[in-house]
């Protein structure tokens, strides 16, 4: 029986992880510690909010007093808390440095003081930079860091800090660097939920530049099962890359969504490119597969269908969020 503190558990991946964990490990208890920024949403957790083994604390990981007291008797920290949207980091990097770097250091020190048995840090493939479209290269645990957006730079800094706390102070850490996730509770500012919800609203789908930006899309539940394996069998101090080895351009992802929803290709609207847009990410997940036996359960097409179904069935959930963030959507896409 473990007591797990999940930071950022009201966000997309964190809330999926809490659902996954309580379902697969009902003997454990979870504290969800979240600042509830624009991306934090307790509606993601209404079905489990009264579970006896679930507690919510509204707090900032950069608040030393609050995080110290939340960490009392905690065995494991899983750190999802972050500013996570590249476009927002281009508009204003400051909150990214505050949370992803400075506040992460406060959390690390608190975890060290609390003598947690494991500190697991959730990171991204974006720390590795960008690959050429025509290369066969993939990112792996030994790839040199080369972050290019303010978001990626702050995530890279947080990875370095996490490793530094291991090497300097013996904090028992693990890190996972994962590719793009998609699935339920994905904030509708990100590519896949933006496309689905725009189409369901009868709007066009904005696609940056030529649309030939290649990503490895992982269904969020498969990310959760990978973290589970790293927590149970991963080696302290190690990093594991997670992805499903499928690389399709954004434009083809959008075409698949149009097909599922029976919408015409004229619903695609090419918009001015994101500055410094990384061309291609690809992940080699041999290490986690070989050492921990991880295998994704979902292929991209069936998971995309599940995701579209979820957004069709949960209109109240995303309509509220889009209304609240109306100014952001107008500024980001209507100026082009
Ligand atoms: N979404 C992806 O495709 C992806 C892929 C790889 C890695 N990641 C990483 O996974 C993690 C979760 O990503 P996500 O997409 O769920 O993000 P998200 O933006 O949906 O959620 C982030 C959560 O963190 C909370 N938060 C932000 N600042 C905080 C602070 N200072 N203190 C406490 N809570 C705070 C927010 O309220 C929100 O609930 C991030 O670290 C991200 O870098 C995301």
Automatic annotation (TrEMBL):
CDD domains: dTDP_GD_SDR_e. The keyword Isomerase does not apply. Keywords: Lyase, NAD. Residues 5-305 form the NAD(P)-binding domain. Belongs to the NAD(P)-dependent epimerase/dehydratase family. dTDP-glucose dehydratase subfamily. The keyword Zinc-finger does not apply. Its cofactor is NAD(+). One of its GO terms (molecular function) is dTDP-glucose 4,6-dehydratase activity. Gene3D superfamilies: NAD(P)-binding Rossmann-like Domain, UDP-galactose 4-epimerase, domain 1. This is dTDP-glucose 4,6-dehydratase. It comes from Candidatus Curtissbacteria bacterium RIFCSPHIGHO2_01_FULL_41_11. Pfam families: GDP_Man_Dehyd. Coiled coil: none annotated. The lineage of its organism: Bacteria, Candidatus Curtissiibacteriota.
């Amino acid at each position: 029986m473990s007591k797990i503190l999940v930071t950022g558990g009201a966000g997309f991946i964190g809330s999926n992880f809490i659902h996954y964990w309580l379902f697969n490990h009902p003997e454990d208890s979870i504290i969800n510690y979240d600042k509830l920024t624009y991306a934090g949403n307790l509606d993601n957790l209404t079905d489990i909010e009264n579970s006896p083994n679930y507690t919510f604390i509204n707090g900032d990981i950069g608040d030393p007093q609050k995080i110290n007291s939340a960490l009392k008797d905690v065995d494991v920290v899983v750190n999802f808390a972050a500013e996570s949207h590249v476009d927002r980091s281009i508009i204003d990097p400051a909150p990214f440095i505050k949370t992803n770097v400075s506040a992460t250091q406060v959390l690390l020190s608190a975890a060290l003081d609390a003598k947690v048995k494991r500190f697991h840090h959730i990171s991204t493939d974006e720390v590795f930079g960008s690959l050429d479209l025509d290369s066969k290269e993939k990112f792996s645990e030994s790839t040199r860091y080369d972050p290019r957006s303010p978001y990626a730079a702050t995530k890279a800094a947080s990875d370095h800090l996490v490793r530094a706390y291991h090497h300097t102070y013996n904090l028992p850490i693990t890190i996972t660097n994962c590719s793009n996730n998609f699935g339920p509770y994905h904030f509708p500012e990100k590519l896949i939920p933006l496309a689905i919800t725009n189409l369901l609203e009868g709007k066009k789908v904005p696609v940056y530049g030529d649309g030939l930006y290649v990503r490895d899309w992982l269904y969020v539940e498969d990310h959760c099962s990978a973290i589970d394996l790293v927590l149970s069998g991963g080696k302290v101090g190690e990093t594991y890359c997670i992805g499903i080895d499928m690389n399709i351009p954004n434009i083809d992802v959008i075409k698949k969504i149009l097909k599922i929803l029976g919408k015409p290709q004229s619903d695609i609207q090419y918009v001015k490119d994101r500055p410094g847009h990384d061309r291609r990410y690809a992940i080699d997940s041999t290490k986690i597969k070989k050492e921990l036996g991880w295998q994704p359960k979902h292929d991209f097409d069936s998971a995309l269908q599940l995701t579209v179904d979820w957004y069709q069935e949960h209109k109240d959930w995303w309509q509220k969020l889009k209304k609240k963030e109306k100014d952001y959507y107008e500024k980001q896409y209507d100026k082009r």
